[in-house]
Amino acid sequence: MNEATLQKVKERIEALKKLPGMGEKSVSKMLEDSGFTRRDFLKWSAAMAAMLSLPTSFTPLIAEAAEVSDRLPVIWLNMAECTGCSESLIRSDAPTIDNLIFNYINLQYHDTIMAAAGWQAEENLKEGMEKFKGRYILCVEGGIPTNMDGQYLTMGPHAETGLELLTRAANDAAAVISVGTCSSFGGIQAAAPNPTGAKGVYQVINKPVINVPGCPPSAKNIVGTILYVILFGALPAVDNFNRPKFAYGLRIHDLCERRGHFDAGEFVEQFGDAGAENGFCLYKVGCKGPYTFNNCSRERFNQHTSWPVQAGHGCIGCSEPDFWDSMAPYEEPLANKKYDSPLADATADSYGVTILTVAGVAIAAHAALSAIKNPKE
Ligand code: SF4
Ligand code: SF4
């Protein structure tokens, strides 16, 4: 990161500071009221800079970007989904700084949490889209039904289809972010036989889309992506599935605390056995960590306290395209079953598919060998 980029980011934040804020109080005051000190906030900013793969010199700028996050208008549309992504952000009994910053952003429209309904809701959306034309960030939660011209999902008093509303809202957005696996790749709605023809946002609009998949995605990945857009006014570098590399650049397996046991050929054979008590690797009881690109093993959940593999269940690959079909059965190893996703072919992820296929074969061989080598098995 050179000096010129740093200067540009500073100028961008100064320009955002001049815009009217929507928050009733400053971020510092809001955090203080929730029991977080200035030191906690700076520690969070340093951790966020590290997560975004930025140098430590960015720490104060991350704090400033969070302070001006209420200047950035966000329109949030809910399509075919369970609202789990929103719920995971807003229904926390002990909110993290990520949750609080999400609450602070300038949410112009959000189907689930706004008070308005019916005509009033439509009016709010229209007003937000007109007032912030070309400047708002569009966040989309949920898959987009496309069969029967999208009529499997209609919304509002004019029965507009989700597909129509999304196309209209995306046209005037400064950036489009798919929040969760459903809006990224279709999710459970797109599971076979996919009667509604559900698809990911990037498959139905002609605009760059950044995918933040997960079922649900972590608050850190959502807030990190939004902060990146605030800092740089651009989308972050992405992988072949349009996922930000800072969050989805490594496999779960790469930083898993059970990895030493995988390498040593020490596996849980069934839930509740001695291997489980000893914290052995969960591959044989279905962990899909070797096939899954996400940062759960590094960032964890619930204030960094734990994550599914630490709690004793394997990763189910929720941030991968078609995980619902491709990663099942969840409590059995994929072994050398080919990772078979039409999206993988469509996006020409030959690198990832090769790695996954080779990894699958190698892992199967490794697991089989361990069964012979370990006398207890
Ligand atoms: S297979 Fe799963 S439990 Fe085992 S090391 Fe990899 S991610 Fe961890
Ligand atoms: S550990 Fe795997 S299944 Fe669990 S949230 Fe992370 S990517 Fe999804």
UniProtKB/TrEMBL annotation:
<dbReference type="InterPro" id="IPR019546">
    <property type="entry name" value="TAT_signal_bac_arc"/>
</dbReference>
<feature type="binding site">
    <location>
        <position position="281"/>
    </location>
    <ligand>
        <name>[4Fe-4S] cluster 2</name>
    </ligand>
</feature>
<feature type="binding site">
    <location>
        <position position="296"/>
    </location>
    <ligand>
        <name>[3Fe-4S] cluster</name>
    </ligand>
</feature>
<feature type="binding site">
    <location>
        <position position="182"/>
    </location>
    <ligand>
        <name>[4Fe-4S] cluster 1</name>
    </ligand>
</feature>
<keyword id="KW-0004">4Fe-4S</keyword>
<dbReference type="GO" id="GO:0009061">
    <property type="term" value="P:anaerobic respiration"/>
</dbReference>
<feature type="binding site">
    <location>
        <position position="287"/>
    </location>
    <ligand>
        <name>[4Fe-4S] cluster 2</name>
    </ligand>
</feature>
<dbReference type="GO" id="GO:0016020">
    <property type="term" value="C:membrane"/>
</dbReference>
<comment type="subunit">
    <text>Heterodimer of a large and a small subunit.</text>
</comment>
<dbReference type="GO" id="GO:0047067">
    <property type="term" value="F:hydrogen:quinone oxidoreductase activity"/>
</dbReference>
<dbReference type="GO" id="GO:0009375">
    <property type="term" value="C:ferredoxin hydrogenase complex"/>
</dbReference>
<feature type="binding site">
    <location>
        <position position="318"/>
    </location>
    <ligand>
        <name>[3Fe-4S] cluster</name>
    </ligand>
</feature>
<comment type="similarity">
    <text>Belongs to the [NiFe]/[NiFeSe] hydrogenase small subunit family.</text>
</comment>
<protein>
    <submittedName>
        <fullName>Quinone-reactive Ni/Fe-hydrogenase small chain</fullName>
        <ecNumber>1.12.5.1</ecNumber>
    </submittedName>
</protein>
<dbReference type="InterPro" id="IPR037148">
    <property type="entry name" value="NiFe-Hase_small_C_sf"/>
</dbReference>
<dbReference type="GO" id="GO:0030313">
    <property type="term" value="C:cell envelope"/>
</dbReference>
<keyword id="KW-0479">Metal-binding</keyword>
<dbReference type="Pfam" id="PF01058">
    <property type="entry name" value="Oxidored_q6"/>
</dbReference>
<feature type="binding site">
    <location>
        <position position="256"/>
    </location>
    <ligand>
        <name>[4Fe-4S] cluster 2</name>
    </ligand>
</feature>
<dbReference type="InterPro" id="IPR001821">
    <property type="entry name" value="NiFe_hydrogenase_ssu"/>
</dbReference>
<feature type="binding site">
    <location>
        <position position="82"/>
    </location>
    <ligand>
        <name>[4Fe-4S] cluster 1</name>
    </ligand>
</feature>
<keyword id="KW-0408">Iron</keyword>
<dbReference type="InterPro" id="IPR006137">
    <property type="entry name" value="NADH_UbQ_OxRdtase-like_20kDa"/>
</dbReference>
<dbReference type="InterPro" id="IPR006311">
    <property type="entry name" value="TAT_signal"/>
</dbReference>
<dbReference type="InterPro" id="IPR037024">
    <property type="entry name" value="NiFe_Hase_small_N_sf"/>
</dbReference>
<feature type="domain" description="NADH:ubiquinone oxidoreductase-like 20kDa subunit">
    <location>
        <begin position="82"/>
        <end position="228"/>
    </location>
</feature>
<dbReference type="InterPro" id="IPR027394">
    <property type="entry name" value="Cytochrome-c3_hydrogenase_C"/>
</dbReference>
<dbReference type="GO" id="GO:0046872">
    <property type="term" value="F:metal ion binding"/>
</dbReference>
<feature type="binding site">
    <location>
        <position position="253"/>
    </location>
    <ligand>
        <name>[4Fe-4S] cluster 2</name>
    </ligand>
</feature>
<keyword id="KW-0003">3Fe-4S</keyword>
<dbReference type="GO" id="GO:0008901">
    <property type="term" value="F:ferredoxin hydrogenase activity"/>
</dbReference>
<keyword id="KW-0560">Oxidoreductase</keyword>
<feature type="domain" description="Cytochrome-c3 hydrogenase C-terminal">
    <location>
        <begin position="248"/>
        <end position="330"/>
    </location>
</feature>
<dbReference type="GO" id="GO:0044569">
    <property type="term" value="C:[Ni-Fe] hydrogenase complex"/>
</dbReference>
<keyword id="KW-0732">Signal</keyword>
<dbReference type="Pfam" id="PF14720">
    <property type="entry name" value="NiFe_hyd_SSU_C"/>
</dbReference>
<keyword id="KW-0411">Iron-sulfur</keyword>
<dbReference type="GO" id="GO:0051538">
    <property type="term" value="F:3 iron, 4 sulfur cluster binding"/>
</dbReference>
<keyword id="KW-0500">Molybdenum</keyword>
<feature type="binding site">
    <location>
        <position position="215"/>
    </location>
    <ligand>
        <name>[4Fe-4S] cluster 1</name>
    </ligand>
</feature>
<dbReference type="GO" id="GO:0051539">
    <property type="term" value="F:4 iron, 4 sulfur cluster binding"/>
</dbReference>
<feature type="binding site">
    <location>
        <position position="315"/>
    </location>
    <ligand>
        <name>[3Fe-4S] cluster</name>
    </ligand>
</feature>
